[in-house]
């Protein structure tokens, strides 16, 4: 019996954590970690599986015999447009922990805008005892854009908190107890939305999608007074100059952003200091290495048993 080929790993986040977990991951076949100087110049022609996040541009030339590519995160826009991308399956990272973390962040941000947390923080810093009267969650409609694994879980958690929740996706989706809209019904969806939650993947259609034209179509007579934009999907889906101007002009009442057009966010970016804007450094749902490697091991085992891979990317759709 031939020795299983090691898993090729080219991940550009948390190198210390990746190296630590790789010591015990893939016990039956081992790994080649391109972040390790000892592995950097290895011959990769025997590699059959690659786990990548923002891989080196020449990776697929160096590893011409890959059978499956695994994304190190839920998104695949860092792979899908690469030169020399082989015509083999690309598998997204889907994991209970990652999904739960994302929903926690989304629910937290919606609650902070519902309860005026920015104003409370400002009052606290000034030592002001200033009570606020907030609407109840049931008075506020949260519109979730993107109804994949992450979006559907966020919908469920937001409903538990009492929000009125509606959903939008490019193609029709059905969720029990939730009004859903598709691409043809975008304006109707926006007109009902007080808090817009962006969980869309990055595709040519969603690049620059969240801009001034869209913000102006959000509901303006709801319990919050002015609509709020929350994005934890992809940074290049938003036009940050439009977010800044929409908040300054009162078109948006606030925002919560975990992703940005360029990361890290520049220290002179006006988003840092805008009122009622919460910034987090793309850590709403970080990939946990143990779970990531378990996911890859499970999918490789399925593939080698002749079973279909799960979470395979539709290249035509881009996700």
Compact overview of the structure:
The protein has helices spanning 15-22, 59-62, 77-80, 96-114, 117-125, 149-160, 186-191, 212-215, 240-248, 289-304, and strands spanning 7-11, 31-33, 49-53, 68-71, 90-91, 141-145, 164-168, 179-181, 195-198, 228-231, 254-257, 277-279.
Strands ordered across the widest β-sheet = 8-7-6-9-10-11-12
- Give the CA-CA distance, first to last residue: 36 Å
Q: Which stretches are low in confidence, meaning pLDDT under 50 for 5 or more residues running? A: none
Q: What structural class is derived from the secondary structure elements?
A: alpha/beta
DSSP strand content: 5-15%
Instruction: Report the sheet with the most strands, covering strand number, pairing sense and barrel closure.
Output: 7 strands, parallel
The shape, in one word, is: elongated
Rg, Cα atoms, Å: 22 Å
Strand segment tally: 12
> Mean of the pLDDT scores?
96
Q: Order of helices and strands, N to C?
A: EHEEHEHEHHEHEEHEHEHEEH
Into which percent range does the helicity of residues fall? Answer: 25-40%
The number of distinct helices, counting runs of at least 4 residues, comes to 10
């Amino acid at each position: 019996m031939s020795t299983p080929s090691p898993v090729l790993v080219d991940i550009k986040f948390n190198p210390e954590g990746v190296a630590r977990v790789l010591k015990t991951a893939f016990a039956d076949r081992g790994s080649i970690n391109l972040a390790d100087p000892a592995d950097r110049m290895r011959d990769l022609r025997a590699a059959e599986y690659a786990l990548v996040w923002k891989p080196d541009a020449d990776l697929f030339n160096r590893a011409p015999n890959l059978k499956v590519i695994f994304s190190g995160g839920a998104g695949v826009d860092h792979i899908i447009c690469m030169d020399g991308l082989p015509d083999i399956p690309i598998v997204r990272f889907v994991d209970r922990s990652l999904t739960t973390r994302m929903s926690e962040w989304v629910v937290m941000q919606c609650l902070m805008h519902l309860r005026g947390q920015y104003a409370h923080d400002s009052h606290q810093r000034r030592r002001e005892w200033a009570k606020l009267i907030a609407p109840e969650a049931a008075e506020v409609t949260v519109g979730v854009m993107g109804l994949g694994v992450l979006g559907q879980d966020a919908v469920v958690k937001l409903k538990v908190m009492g929000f009125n929740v509606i959903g939008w996706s490019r193609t029709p989706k059905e969720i029990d107890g939730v009004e859903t809209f598709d691409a043809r019904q975008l304006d109707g969806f926006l007109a009902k939305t007080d808090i817009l939650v962006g969980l869309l993947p990055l595709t040519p259609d969603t690049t620059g999608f969240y801009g001034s034209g869209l913000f102006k179509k959000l509901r303006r007579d709801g319990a919050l007074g002015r609509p709020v934009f929350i994005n934890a999907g992809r940074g290049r889906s938003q036009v940050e100059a439009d977010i800044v101007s929409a908040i300054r002009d009162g078109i948006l009442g606030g925002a919560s952003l975990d992703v940005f057009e360029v990361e890290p966010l520049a220290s002179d970016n006006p988003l840092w200091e805008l009122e009622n804007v919460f910034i987090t450094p793309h850590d709403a749902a970080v990939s946990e290495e143990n779970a990531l490697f378990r996911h890859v091991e499970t999918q490789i085992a399925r593939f080698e048993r002749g079973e279909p891979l799960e979470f395979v990317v539709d290249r035509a759709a881009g996700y």
